[in-house]
Design brief:
A two-stranded antiparallel ribbon has the order 1-2. The chain folds into two domains: 19-92, no CATH class; 99-221, Orthogonal Bundle (Cytochrome Bc1 Complex, Chain D, domain 2), CATH 1.10.760. It contains twelve helices and two strands, in the order ααααααααββαααα. It has 272 residues and is mainly α. The protein is elongated and about 130 Å long.
Length: 272
Amino acid sequence: MSEEEHITGPNPKSRESMEQAAMQDERMQDVHAQLMREKEEPREGFSPVPIFLMFVFAALCFWGGVYLVEHSGGYRWDAYSPDFDPNAGAPKPVEISLVDRGAKVFRNQCAQCHQAEGTGVPGVYPPLAGSSWVTGHPEVVARILINGLNGPIEVKGNTYNGNMPTFGPGGLALSEKDIAGVITYIRQEWGNSASEVTEAMIADYSNLYNGRSTPWTAAELKEGLGPVPEAAPEAGPAEPEGAEEAAPAEEAPAEGAEEGAPAEGAPAVAAK
């Protein structure tokens, strides 16, 4: 071997021949085959995220959103407590009376048929003003609104034959307070002067008749009526706390005067 070949290493041609010889070796081929089985072929791009991790990430985001809503103090910049309620000092909404509530329900649901003045439509829809069906037993009109009415009915000497829709759970599903309000309104409007129907009374009637699936007839409306609930007594003006104590104090001088009368007469007797 020359000195030049010793310095620069083996000839490239001889190196290629050695690699070719190694590739022809069966043992070397087995080693390469094992490596190919154990490792996947390299691919371009990104591997997909496991679905499990995506669900975990979504659950964490949902929990974080709920936590922020409940413990953010209304996102107020001046709130430093996680339990701060921005609506704590807000004024409560004004509760309207049953009559005002009933007037609103009547305008939206009833005035189209029975008219704004409660006169109805002759031959089609019965009047409510001056009707004994309205001003009589409150359970009668409550039955009509909760379950509806079907068939002929005589009102103020005239017969009407139609269908009254139900305002209860089987129909318009008005609240018990709305039903109590509209009944109170028609019983006290247009010259009617019947008693108020409270929400508690409608709750009792609803427990009795919500399970009924058929509307009432005129003959059934006055059957099996319960007693008329008594109206709650009105609270009278409160008397001052010191009024009762002041009364005996005013009577005290009178008692002292009776005891002192003989004392005034004693000098007179002695003078005699």
